[in-house]
Amino acid sequence: MRFLKLIFDFYINSSIHVGLSCYALVRMTQHMFHIPVDEPVANFAFFGTIVGYNFVKYDALARVQRLQMRKQLKTIALFSFFALFLVGYYFFLLQRITQIVAVVFLSVTLLYTLPFFPNKKNARNWAGVKIYIVALCWVGVTLALPVLNADVSITSDFYLKCMQRFILIFVLVLIFEIIDLAKDDPHLKTVPQQIGVKRTKILGLLLLLPFYFLEFFKSNFDKNQLIINLILVIIISLFMLFANEKRSKYYTSFWVESVPIVWWLLLLIF
């Protein structure tokens, strides 16, 4: 049993789970825009997410605090290096325009983690902007990259999906911010810190309305997608309603981060 927990913790801590969530959203985009399965861009997003998240999570520990690396952290570092190699491999299989946009989002990730300006904090610690940066990066990687790589025409549907995807990630991050309220630096000015948990939950639930109803404005209306999105909205609403600071770390790191995977699985089922 202890061995299984170690495996599960490595799966979570090494960002494989969040990488799968990103992969699932890329596959959702490919379905929505009728793009044939494009494994290079999906795999690039998967391994890129692993590298990016591990860099963001463990940079301070390895670079600033200079603490002795535990065995699991060394394993994660080795795994991340292997993932970085695969990121490079899949990067060169992408279209040139996709590579350029990918570099832009890589730069945003570095800005999020590293202080580029003297005596300034990194973007992760800029008051009130963390949630917008995270949502923007997810929209770019899971929606813009697959569409650009497939050379799909940019229509109103693309912009609708950008808004819908931004809202989805924004709401999911709100749940993270509620759970992390006790641990977050007050200077971060997260949404729960500014308006309180109750109002944050109301905001999250209200934002799910445009997320759902934006589907009606698509040029290619899909009834099955409405059913799938309704199930998703119910699941996210329950996660939002039951979120509090006393929840286990797995509440967000596994269950909430499973939402994109569940969305994709629902699509496969329907």
UniProtKB/TrEMBL annotation:
Record-given protein name: Prenyltransferase
Top-level taxonomic group: Bacteria
Species of the source: Flavobacterium algoritolerans
Presence of keyword Membrane: yes
Assigned keywords, A-Z: Membrane, Transmembrane, Transmembrane helix
TM regions (residue ranges): 6-26, 73-91, 97-117, 129-148, 163-182, 202-220, 226-243, 250-269
Keyword Transmembrane tagged: yes
Source lineage: Bacteria, Pseudomonadati, Bacteroidota, Flavobacteriia, Flavobacteriales
